[in-house]
């Protein structure tokens, strides 16, 4: 394995804790894809087909119990093909995740809050955050009635203002 470690607070496989981790860590999805490539007998970096599990005597054509087969998916064994997932996993392995704090795609959200900025300094700070794939604020120049102030930026989910 490539050393990818995914922790979950949930007892069920693929719980919300794992999904949160995939969103919060920009490199987690790539690491997961590399681990899946290796599990399917491909080199995690080059995609080269190693054709069998480490220590296995027989080659794996489409699937074996070291990669995709399990006793739980026996009805689907004829449909399993590790070759079919390689291109997708290779693309994911080289990617990063850039989450948007709102329902808009990140680029649209960035453009929207850039337009709301009150100064070039604020726009520079936003660009700096974006270039490093850091979490973008939820809003810009939003008036907080209870405090009678208008912070430059607000992170809704963390109840934080800048
Ligand atoms: Zn196999």
What does this structure look like?
The chain is elongated. A hairpin with a 4-residue loop joins strand 2 and strand 3 (160-161). The chain has 2 domains: 16-93, no CATH class; 106-161, no CATH class. The chain contains 5 helices and 3 strands. The chain has helices at residues 16-24, 28-39, 82-93, 106-116, 120-131, and strands at residues 139-140, 153-155, 160-161. Bound molecules: zinc ion. Zinc ion (ZN) binds at residues 41, 53, 60, 63-64, 66-67, 82.
How would the blueprint of this fold be written?
Layout: H1 16-24, H2 28-39, H3 82-93, H4 106-116, H5 120-131, E1 139-140, E2 153-155, E3 160-161
Antiparallel strand pairs: 1-2, 2-3
Helix pairs in contact: 2-3
This protein binds zinc ion (ZN).
């Amino acid at each position: 394995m490539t050393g990818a470690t995914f922790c979950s607070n949930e007892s069920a496989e693929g719980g919300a804790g794992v999904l949160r981790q995939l969103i919060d860590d920009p490199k987690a999805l790539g690491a997961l894809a590399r681990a899946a490539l290796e599990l399917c007998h491909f080199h995690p970096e080059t995609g080269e087909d190693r054709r069998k599990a480490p220590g296995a005597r027989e080659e794996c054509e489409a699937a074996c119990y070291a990669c995709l087969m399990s006793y739980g998916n026996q009805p689907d064994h004829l449909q399993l093909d590790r070759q079919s997932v390689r291109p997708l996993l290779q693309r994911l392995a080289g990617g990063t995740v850039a989450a948007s704090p709102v329902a808009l795609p990140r680029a649209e959200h960035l453009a929207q809050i850039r337009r709301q900025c009150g100064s070039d300094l604020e726009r520079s700070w936003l660009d700096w955050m974006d270039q490093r794939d850091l979490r973008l604020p939820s809003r810009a120049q939003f008036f907080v009635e209870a405090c009678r102030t208008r912070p430059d930026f607000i992170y809704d989910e963390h109840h934080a203002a800048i």
